[in-house]
Amino acid sequence: MGFDDIYEGTLVTPELSTVHVPIEQIAHQALQQLLDQFLHPQRMPLKVLIATQIVERQSL
Prior knowledge:
Order of helices and strands: EEHE
Largest sheet: 3 strands, mixed
Number of strands: 3
Structural class: alpha+beta
Strand order of the largest sheet: 1-2-3
Radius of gyration: 17 Å
Number of helices: 1
Distance between the termini: 8 Å
Helix content: 25-40%
C-alpha cells in the first residue's frame, strides 16, 4: 500500500494500491485560509476536511 498516488507505484509488480491525496485542493484551501486570515485577523481559522481516495491496484 502506498500513499500520495505517486507514479512510481505503477512501475512495480504488482502495482501498489495507494491513497490519493488531492494536493491541488489542499494548496488552494490553504491559500484561501491564509488570505482570509490576512484580511480578517480577528476571525478564527476554519477547520476544513478534504477527502482522500483509495486507488485499488493489483497489490490488494
